[in-house]
Amino acid sequence: MATGVKPRVKVPKSAAAGDTVTIKTLISHKMESGQRKDDDGNVIPRSIINRFTCDFNGENVIEVLLEPAISTNPYLEFEAMAPEAGEFKFTWYDDDGSVYETAKNIAIS
Amino acid sequence: GNWAKVAAQQLLTQDKLLEFDTFGNVSLIHITDIHAQLVPHYFREPSVNIGVGRNTGAVPHVTGAEFRKLYGIDDGSPSAYALTYDDFASLAQGYGRVGGLDRVSTVIKSIRADRPDALLLDGGDTWHGSYTCYQTQGQDMVNVMNALKPDAMTFHWEFTLGSDRVTEIVGGLPFAALGQNIFDAEWDEPTELFPPYKFFERGGVKIAVIGQAFPYMPIANPGWMFPEYAFGIRDERMQEMVDEVRAAGAELVVCLSHNGFDVDKKMAGKVNGIDVILSGHTHDALPEPVLIGETILVASGSTGKFVSRVDLDVRSGRMMGFRHKLIPVFSDVIEPDAELTTLIEEQRAPHATSLSEVIGRTADDQLLYRRGNFNGTWDDLICDALISERDADIALSPGVRWGPSILPGQDITREDIWNVTSMTYGQAYRNEMTGEFLHVVLEDVADNLFNPDPYYQQGGDMVRVGGLGYRINITKPQGERITEMTLLKTGEAIDPSRTYQVAGWASVNEGTEGPQIWDVVEAHIAMQGTISLDPNNSVKVVGP
Amino acid sequence: IGVGALLISGLPFRASASTEDAIAAFTGGAEVGSGDVKLIAPEIAENGNTVPIEVSSDTAKEIMVLATGNPTPSVATFKFGKLAASRAASTRIRLAGTQDVLAIAKLEDGSFVQASRTVKVTIGGCGG
Ligand SMILES: [Mn+2]
Ligand SMILES: [Mn+2]
After folding, report:
1. Taking every annotated instance into account, which residue ranges of this chain make up the domain Sulphur oxidation protein SoxZ (chain A) (predicted)?
2. For residues B404 and B416, what is the distance between their CA atoms, to the nearest angstrom?
């Protein structure tokens, strides 16, 4: 199981209703590709974040399917609309079944 | 001899070198790629500088007699000595050393006497390249440059001091540290430490200076030394910055660039609205600006050998005209600024004994120089040192463009050795490499130099090789340029599957082990005593 | 010049059969034209282990990214939801060597379009 996994997100604290907001996410994860070998020549098993979702007040913003070619500490940037005040919910799904979540509130100015 | 020296210098006076018919309402002063050369030295320009693609035969890819013909320079004249390579050793006897930041100060002060609010812009590669710079982690250069009172600078080798040291110095700089393409690597955002541009009000003109740092820093230099930063050309953002400063009222847009000349030419063709690009990194010195559309490109050489002055007439928000001079800093002709001489001596005094120690000397017919696409005699000497001191079959030495020259029959001091080797990753490694891998290395570096698209060029010269010969066809694509690789000591073809002992230095990989290159070279020179090198004919070039 | 334990090749990789398979799986065998999809990637990767890329389109429902020269070409698929303010996203990817990166978009009208960029992964070293 992956250890030390820590999600971080950047979301503006407020926006005008219906405005575009830029969201950036990072999650510390080694993204073991399954193609590397250890010093004894044994293949190190694949262990990656394979899926990411961002939802706002229950409605989907983006879903990303990730493959082993995504770099260590996966970074994702995209644009969302916030039609009203509420909560962005971010979810990362690990190969090992772990699910990592974080959320950010946004106010409407 | 002495007679030649007197005769040559009678042609030159400080007044004549600095003579300039002040023009328009704005003056820019450009210095770049000083590589920590505080004191006068010799610097020979390249004999081989091949352009590819659309830059075939175009400046700065013109050298020697062709260069003199292009600019109407007489053989044996001061300009011939300053700008071309032929007869370098004998002309150097007559015209003497160049550069020295106390002389550069005199030039700057004379321009400021004409135009007190002239902008002084430093193109970077400033805090790197000497014994004292290494020992003080750049502090000697910071102290001396601060005394010249620049208005802004941009960056390249500075980052090889490591990001902590760069942050420390930049935090205390009394002028702007610019780089529109210096980004925070983690979040891909502009940094606060390196703003994209700065506004100046000079001669009643609102001037925006936009900085462009070296785009390929983490590739050409060890990225692990500054992992917090990302770079790249980012010409789309450059356009945004130009539009932003124009919208904010800029009447003159100056780009202080460390892209290298061909990259600047391409960028000038893609980005609209830059009036002047002050170009650095590739160390070219051009007596006239190059015009791309409505943008002028100015190239000011390296090591403090030249100062460019650009006077501009800016009216109703437009550059209406310019007058330019590439001022060669002949150090026996230009009076040193005493204040700076004292300051420079203060930086050097704690290291005086070590700097001045004589390690060997050059033979009476042996010039040591570096510039050229494929080899220079300094690099031949460094490769010889690597092969003999590290007991290797083959040596590799990076194709850097900095490092002064040593005349025939001149002492070689420890300072001279550091001037061509000093860096924060100077470990001389010794590795086993297969013939196939060596081929990949040569192909990779060749493409960084000869890719027809300037955006794929990094602005270094070809990796120098010792103990190895090859043929290069510049016009071929990557993977097909390098053929006929030969192990010189046996005359046999390099076997792709065989393993060779390779010594080299300046690896960008973290954890590289070995003695420092300056110690390797010093030991070799000390053992040789007098340096006399065999002519290097090991690279056969098929050109465009 | 940087030399040491290097895994990359200096030569461009050729697209593999698995690239064709990945495209077919995404398009169901439909024709792929050019049009409303854009891919931004650097000319030269600063680090082949983390190459920034950006995909965008005005009308894409989904965009798939492939690294045609990697041993396994699949990289990521972006599916834009109802609250996506644009059909654009950025990420960082691993490239095993100099190669073409490919973005294929499934547009709202059901058609498929593609864009590609060559990214050079170099051993590096040397400089002015
Ligand atoms: Mn440089
Ligand atoms: Mn330089």
Report:
1. 10-102
2. 8
Q: What is the pLDDT along chain B (544 residues), one digit of tens a residue?
A: 455 565 566 679 999 999 999 999 999 999 999 999 999 999 999 999 999 999 999 999 999 999 999 999 999 999 999 999 999 999 999 999 999 999 999 999 999 999 999 999 999 999 999 999 999 999 999 999 999 999 999 999 999 999 999 999 999 999 999 999 999 999 999 999 999 999 999 999 999 999 999 999 999 999 999 999 999 999 999 999 999 999 999 999 999 999 999 999 999 999 999 999 999 999 999 999 999 999 999 999 999 999 999 999 999 989 999 999 999 999 999 999 999 999 999 999 999 999 999 999 999 999 999 999 999 999 999 999 999 999 999 999 999 999 999 999 999 999 999 999 999 999 999 999 999 999 999 999 999 999 999 999 887 899 999 999 999 999 999 999 999 999 999 999 999 999 999 999 999 999 999 999 999 999 999 999 999 999 999 999 998 7
State in Å: Cα B452 to ligand 2 middle: 22
Asked if the Cβ–Cβ distance from A26 to B186 is below 8 Å, we say yes
ipTM score assigned to the predicted complex: 0.85
Question: Which ligand is nearest to the Cα of residue B302, counting in written order?
Answer: 2
Contact C125 B508 (CB under 8 A): yes
Q: Which residues pair with C51 in a beta bridge?
A: C93
User: Cα separation of B291 and B322, whole Å?
Assistant: 11
* Chain B touched by A75 (CB under 8 Å): yes
A11 at interface of C, judged by CB pairs closer than 8 A: no
Name the 3-class secondary structure at B101. helix
CA of B257 to the centre of ligand 1 (A): 10
Q: Estimate to the nearest angstrom the gap between the alpha carbon of B253 and the chain centroid.
A: 24
Checking if the pLDDT of C11 tops 70, the result is no
Chain A: nearest CA to C69, how far in angstroms? 11
CB atoms within 10 A of CB B391: 10
Q: Where are the beta strands (DSSP E) in B107-219?
A: 119-122, 152-153, 176-177, 183-184, 189-190, 197-202, 205-212
C75/A80 Cβ within 8 A? no
The values of phi and psi at residue B322, to 5°, are -145, 155
What confidence tens digit (pLDDT) does each residue in A64-103 have?
999 999 999 999 999 999 999 999 999 999 999 999 999 9
C124, B508: Cβ pair inside 8 Å?
Answer: yes
Q: Chain A partners of B186 at a C-beta cutoff of 8 Å?
A: 26
Is the CB of residue A9 less than 8 Å away from at least one CB of chain B?
no
Cα-to-chain-centroid distance, residue B445: 18
d(CA B132, CA B344): 11
Helix/strand/coil for B142: helix
Neighboring chain B residues of A24 at a CB cutoff of 8 Å? 187-188
Nearest Cα residue to B412 out of B533, B535, B284: B533
Give the closest of B232, B282, B396 to C1, CB-based: B396
Q: Which two tokens mark B118?
A: 């002239």
A5 CA to chain C: closest CA distance, Å? 18
Select from B157, B444, B507 the Cβ nearest to the Cβ of C4: B507
What amino acid is encoded at B344 in this protein?
I
Judged by CB atoms closer than 8 Å, whether chains meet at B396 and C52 is answered as: no
Q: How far apart are CA B459 and CA B51, in angstroms?
A: 11
